[in-house]
Amino acid sequence: MYSRRWLIAALGVLGLVTGCSQFNTNLSSQTSSSVLTFLSPSAVALGNVPPTGLPITANGAGFVTGAIILWNVGPNQVSLTTTFVSSAQLTATVPIADITTAGKVPVAVQIPGSAVSGSSNVYATTTTEVSNFINFKIDAAAGPAPAITSVLAPSTSLSSTPYCQPNGFTLTVNGANFVNGSVVNWNGSPRVTTFGSSTQLTASVTAADAAFPGTAGISVSNPSAPSNTVPFTMTTPAPPGLPTPSIISLSQTSAIAGSQTFPLTVTGSSFVPCSVVQWNGSSVATTYVSATELDATIPAVDIFSANPAVNVTVFTLLPGGGASGAIVFTVSP
User: Fold this and answer.
1) Could you say which DSSP state residue 271 is in?
2) Per-residue pLDDT for 122 more than 90?
3) Is the whole model's pTM more than 0.90, yes or no?
4) Does residue 190 have a cis bond before it (omega within 30 degrees)?
């Protein structure tokens, strides 16, 4: 009797199983829901790799805890252990021994044991999923790597700024070896950068970047080398703190139980970037549009069952802030 593995191989040779790079034990195709959009840095020059290895950030979607970055995809690929930042970002370090020759290195993200959507954060046990690949460029030896000495916010002239400001701000990065084409990265993601001189860059930081308290890692990528990373902190706003939000209307006030996920626009006043829409007291995904508008996404699970009186409110972080009044939303049978 022929083995199942032999049968799968034979079907592949005959062209009866096509378009699939991997299979589970039921012969169904393994589709990829993880997407790699860009790497930061995207290139490095030989001689500019730190002795401890090159830190890289994979940006995309559908990542999960335990995902692996595949370096030099192919027969000699290297699996890099990652740090999970979010479903859209992973970090890892490429050993210096794997950056020895100029050229292009294909890089992909692998979701181990995943036969389901990567974004579900649920593992199966039979197959792995591999994203698209992006080429990382290794250049011949070039000039010295950029180096950051300080980062400054205009509001404080320090490496910090109060969180949840209504507008973004311009971040000044001081250092050395900057070039026309250097890019400032915020937690590994590039921001619009203006070249001032070999010792100074400015970057546009969005309101969403600094909406919540915490620390961001600031780095600079030259076309052929990355810099060191320095911290930038979002601090507590000074008294009296943030304004208390108020809501006036919703883009809709009813839905049918069992409906699909839908967008909800909340109109009001005194909204700030850290304001979130709450559905019966639980926060939902919210996008700050302006001081008078927030866009929220109401997941299908929240309208699975009928509910005649869902309280929709807006909550802003303390100090100040707090919850708005409620508008009633009806989920009808």
Assistant:
1) -
2) no
3) no
4) no
